[in-house]
Amino acid sequence: MKQIDVAVGVLIDADGRVLLARRPDHLHQGGKLEFPGGKVEAGEALGAALKREFLEEVNVHLTVPDNIKPWLSITHDYGDKQVRLLVVKLADFHGEPHGNEGQEVFWLHFDALKAEEFPAANIEIIERLRTAS
Ligand SMILES: Nc1nc2c([nH]c(=O)n2[C@@H]2O[C@H](COP(=O)(O)OP(=O)(O)OP(=O)(O)O)[C@@H](O)[C@H]2O)c(=O)[nH]1
Ligand SMILES: [Mg+2]
User: Fold this and answer.
1) HSE of 124 in the Cβ direction (CA atoms, 13 Å)?
2) Cβ contacts of 94 within 8 Å, gap of 6 or more
3) What is the mean pLDDT of the chain?
4) Furthest C-alpha separation in the chain
5) Which listed ligand is nearest to 7 at the C-alpha?
6) What single-letter DSSP state applies at residue 100?
């Protein structure tokens, strides 16, 4: 099965709160929480994909180099879909977050993240956020 590269942004504000969105019910892993992001287009750099997805999905302008390297790279097979999450920690942004696709978007302190509310591939991200911070 073809593996899909997904740019995933963990945007943390000055108070240690992380920007989250709830995946619309009709999408893959619908109803679960997620870090904003999406598929990296052919030939697109990771930082460019993050900037595009954050603006499209949550109305946030990121300052991040196009050639940023992932903090974590996580491969996961959902059975119906195989993904590689390219995860970047982000702090520099402007704009008021808003769910451009009608989805719920909110800030939550990283201590309060519960792995079971996220897609299974995210477990490692949440564990690493707890230990790395
Ligand atoms: N954005 C995002 N996607 C995640 C996370 N964890 C995770 O397993 N994924 C998976 O990554 C895949 C692609 O993400 P996506 O659906 O946001 O892609 P996208 O924005 O380009 O969507 P589209 O192609 O429907 O427009 C989905 O199968 C999704 O379930 C996460 O924390 N954030
Ligand atoms: Mg997306």
Assistant:
1) 12
2) 60, 61, 63
3) 96
4) 41
5) 1
6) T
What ipTM is given for this predicted complex?
0.94
98 lines ligand 1 (CB under 6 A): no
DSSP code per residue over 75-96: EEE-SS-EEEEEEEEE--EES-
In the block, tokens 């808003």 appear at 98
Closest CA to ligand 1's atom 2:
37
Class for the domain spanning 3-132: alpha beta
The CB of 70 under 6 Å from ligand 1? The reply is: no
Is the CB of 8 inside a 6 Å radius of any atom of ligand 1? yes
In the chain, domain spans: 3-132
Q: What is the pLDDT of residues 66-118, one digit of tens each?
A: 999 999 999 999 999 999 999 999 999 999 999 999 999 999 999 999 999 99
* Residue 10 structure tokens: 């963990």
Predicted model pTM:
0.95
Any ligand 1 atom below 6 A from CB of 39 = yes
Whether 86 and 47 have beta carbons less than 8 Å apart is answered as: no
